[in-house]
Amino acid sequence: MLKPEIKNYVTPKHIRDYPTGPSFEAGHLVSINAGWRTFKPVVDINVCTGCYQCYLLCSDGAISKTDNKKIEFDYSFCKGCGVCAHECSFNAISMVKEELAK
Amino acid sequence: MVDIKKITAKNMTDKEFFFGHKACAGCGGSLAVRLAMKVFGEKTFAALPAGCMSAVGFIFPQMAFLNNAIISTFPGTGSMLSGMRAGLDALGFHDTHVVGFAGDGGTADIGLQALSGAIDRRDRIIYICYDNEAYMNTGVQKSGLTPYGTKTTTSPAGKNLSGAVTHKKNLFEIIAAHDIAYAATASVGYPQDYLNKLSKAARVKGTSYIHIYATCPTGWGISTETSVSLAKEAVDCGLWYLAEYENSTFKINRKLTKPELLKEHLLKQGRFKHLKDEDIKVIESERDRKWAQMMEKWG
Ligand SMILES: Cc1ncc(C[n+]2csc(CCOP(=O)(O)OP(=O)(O)O)c2C)c(N)n1
Ligand code: SF4
Ligand code: SF4
Ligand code: SF4
């Protein structure tokens, strides 16, 4: 497993449903971060050289390498910060207004 | 030192160990934690005091670390790391890393005593200070690492004062003065340099300390996409520096390349927008004094 998957979480109904200590198993995610975005990164695969600078610099680990040595975004966890687009030396990534993005 | 294979963007593990966290978009601190965890790997036990990285990583019922991680007391990161190392060693888990991720307030002010103790014991732990130059998680209060002229809620800029009146505490040299096994400064704007230093720290037999300059779009008033480029520029114009201390010797990794960028660099940031030319002169002369001293002693 490269990244944790979203788990279904049932909100406790009663105080006794809560754990006694606030600890959880590693990688216990119950919500995504997609709703944070105003702009969404879109990559032009024909321009991308697979240098992986964007992958390196994403604070959210929302970029992954693909088998054909390009990249793809995990739009569930991308927050739309724009660092990837700003740092790509080849201008392969553009930030597109969320509702206009395909 | 034996030649170690360089970890780069191309060959690093595809696994993410700090993922799904709720840090602000473009947060430099979370990038510092993410990259460190990718270098140290699964068999790493982390402790984080109160601060942004624990706040964004451990939001009940979420747990954004994929390895073992715990929130330490605010002043006790260093001692907690020592205890974790002792516990792991007692259980025979020697092939592990013990790492702390603490903010500038948690390191330079409140956690300094426990950190000093851990270095003094020569414990095999790695301490990473992500320096966003203020107490961010509680809404931007001045810390010992907040630079001169910074507008924070406890060092407001107005008619009488232009933000913080003190310069950054010289923490790197305070740590080095313990004759620590390995200490380094880094910046999220120079990621390969940081990766190299993380790899070194992972191999050190005693204590290691990395102080990484970590941009905070929210607290600094900068646009999120400039988070990495600004951290690079800070090094280029000399407000931060890349250095190492090992075998009781200091080394500067990068010379001051673009001193003329200083003013432009400062005025890009909301926290420095109020600075007048005379304030910038103060910052400039402190920078020049520091660099002259570093080049003379370590150059
Ligand atoms: C003993 C104690 N005092 C105060 C606090 C409140 N507190 C929580 S986070 C924080 C700020 C931490 O600042 P810093 O260490 O610089 O890390 P950052 O938030 O910038 O990542 C403070 C003051 C606390 N949790 N515990
Ligand atoms: S930085 Fe640009 S060229 Fe490099 S992998 Fe990312 S999109 Fe492709
Ligand atoms: S916009 Fe920001 S969060 Fe989204 S993929 Fe790019 S760097 Fe990562
Ligand atoms: S306030 Fe700053 S340090 Fe804290 S999560 Fe947001 S960007 Fe990161």
H and E string of chain B: HEHEHEHHEHEHEHHEEHH
The helix/strand class of chain B is alpha/beta
Mean pLDDT across residues of chain A: 94
* Pattern of helices and strands of chain A: EHEEHE
**Main sheet: strand order of chain A:** 1-4
| Average of pLDDT of chain B | 97
Shape of chain A: elongated
Strand segment count of chain A: 4
Poorly predicted regions of chain B: none
Count of DSSP helices of chain A? Answer: 2
Top CATH class of chain B: Alpha Beta
Number of domains of chain B: 1
Q: How would you describe the overall organization of this protein?
A:
The complex is a heterodimer of chains A (102) and B (299). Chain A is mainly beta. Chain A has a domain at 33-101: Alpha-Beta Plaits, CATH 3.30.70.20. Chain A has 2 helices and 4 strands; from the N terminus they run E-H-E-E-H-E. In chain A, the strands form 2 sheets. In chain A, strands 1-4 form a two-stranded antiparallel ribbon. The two termini of chain A are 29 Å apart. The mean pLDDT of chain A is 94. Chain B is of the alpha/beta class and 299 residues long. Chain B has a single domain (28-298), classed as Rossmann fold, CATH 3.40.50. Chain B has an 8-stranded mixed beta sheet with strand order 2-1-3-4-6-5-7-8, sandwiched between helices. In chain B, helix 7 links the parallel strand 5 (182-187) and strand 6 (208-213). In chain B, helix 1 (28-40) crosses helix 7 and helix 3 (77-90) runs parallel beside helix 5. The longest helix of chain B has 22 residues, at 277-298. The radius of gyration of chain B is 18 Å and the shape is globular. The two termini of chain B are 21 Å apart. The relative contact order of chain B is 0.13. At the A-B interface, helix 1 and helix 2 of A face helix 1 and helix 9 of B. The structure holds thiamine diphosphate and iron/sulfur cluster (3 copies). Residues 23-24, 27, 29, 52, 56, 132, 136-137, 216-219 of chain B line the site of one iron/sulfur cluster. Residues 43, 48-54, 71, 88, 90, 92-93 of chain A line the site of one iron/sulfur cluster.
